[in-house]
């Protein structure tokens, strides 16, 4: 069984170019789609023999990977959980460095991987199926290595926690890679915006102390984000002397947003804007600062609190009160339902 998992991992590494297109879709579903006969018929239409052979080769590699996954899952389903006495017997052998006993113990507990795989929570969390299989297996191996055979409970009662911890860590690392860049960009953009505003007021470039006072940040923090910002290329970065062409102009629109979707977004924005204008001036300002439209980035409770000169709890209670009022508005509820469906 472990050999099959190793084969899957090696096959996965040899098809990294395909993994980039998998995104959040189920790997198995995608493989089924790619290996359909109609795809191969499309390939046959191509006049270039080399191209046809290359694509058929790719499909063949995917089919091998699909077969390996199915073999692995089928074999895992065949395994039966060990009884407590069987576990203890195997652990006595493992203590004597019996490799076969250790492998048997691991394979007998691979069903835990399937048990956790059924948890819908992990389907969309930035990790592809093969990455999850790898993390599940690593978590299981870690649980085996740290197992205390003197425990009265079965191995599975605490091994599941170890496997979930590995998955959570992998998800966090993937998320951190994405969100850290966004967090830095958000801070850098705010520093730039305040710097421009101060320049207009002072008719000169603001000092670091003036920026720190306006942003309510330490000088060290501002310097850190300025340094980070140099390493992240902005999409608005001009790439010609006239500064009329920016990096974004050369980037492909991967979202492929259609005209209809753009119009719908504009209509929703207009409706929400109209609803907010019916609120009291202060309530409207709070909602715009915290959630909507008029600000480059949403403001935190602390920033809004500082802006109004009131307690943070007051802002929190105000938000609850405003949302309670908005929920009585049929138009607002309809907009919320439409957004949830999307």
UniProtKB/TrEMBL annotation:
Record keyword Transcription regulation present: yes
Protein name: RNA polymerase sigma factor RpoD
Domain RNA polymerase sigma-70 region: 106-176, 187-256, 276-328
Any GO BP: DNA-templated transcription initiation
Organism: uncultured bacterium (gcode 4)
Gene3D superfamilies, alphabetized: RNA Polymerase Primary Sigma Factor, Winged helix-like DNA-binding domain superfamily/Winged helix DNA-binding domain
Record keywords: DNA-binding, Sigma factor, Transcription, Transcription regulation
Domain of life from the UniProt record: Bacteria
A molecular function (GO) term: DNA binding
InterPro entries attached to this UniProt entry: RNA_pol_sigma-70_dom, RNA_pol_sigma70, RNA_pol_sigma70_r2, RNA_pol_sigma70_r3, RNA_pol_sigma70_r4, RNA_pol_sigma_r2, RNA_pol_sigma_r3/r4-like, Sigma-70_RNA_pol_init_factors
PANTHER family listed in its UniProt record: RNA POLYMERASE SIGMA FACTOR RPO, RNA POLYMERASE SIGMA FACTOR SIGD, CHLOROPLASTIC
This protein's record includes keyword Transmembrane: no
